[in-house]
Amino acid sequence: NLGNLLARQGVLLEAIACYAQAIVLEPESILAHENLSRAYEQIGNEEQSRIHSTKAAELAAQDIGARGRLK
Predict the structure, then answer these.
(1) Is the separation of the CB atoms in 66 and 46 below 8 Å?
(2) What is the four-CA torsion angle of 2, 56, 20, 15, rounded to 10 degrees?
(3) Of 10, 19, 57, 63, which alpha carbon lies 20 to 30 A from 41's?
(4) Are 41 and 59 in contact (CB under 8 A)?
């Protein structure tokens, strides 16, 4: 995706904008929160990195729980 391409090129603020837009479009996206967390970490914004890392972990735990209930 565009955010990942921008991040690989080192254009992190633009990558962050792409990841943030992905979350607006799909708030439950574990991958978008993980990517945003990583990009924030790379620019030294530990607080935002932690927020999105925590959100990704919460969503992953919910996903695992939902799968378990389906069995």
Answers:
(1) no
(2) -40
(3) 63
(4) no
Q: What is the pLDDT of residues 8-17, one digit of tens each?
A: 999 999 999 9
- Across 36-46, b (16+ Cβ under 10 Å) vs e yields bbbbbbeeebe
Find, among 22, 40, 42, the residue nearest to 32 by Cα: 22
Q: Closest Cα to residue 53, out of 23, 39, 33?
A: 33
Which two structure tokens, joined as six digits, stand for 54? 């925590």
42, 35 Cβ separation under 8 angstroms: no
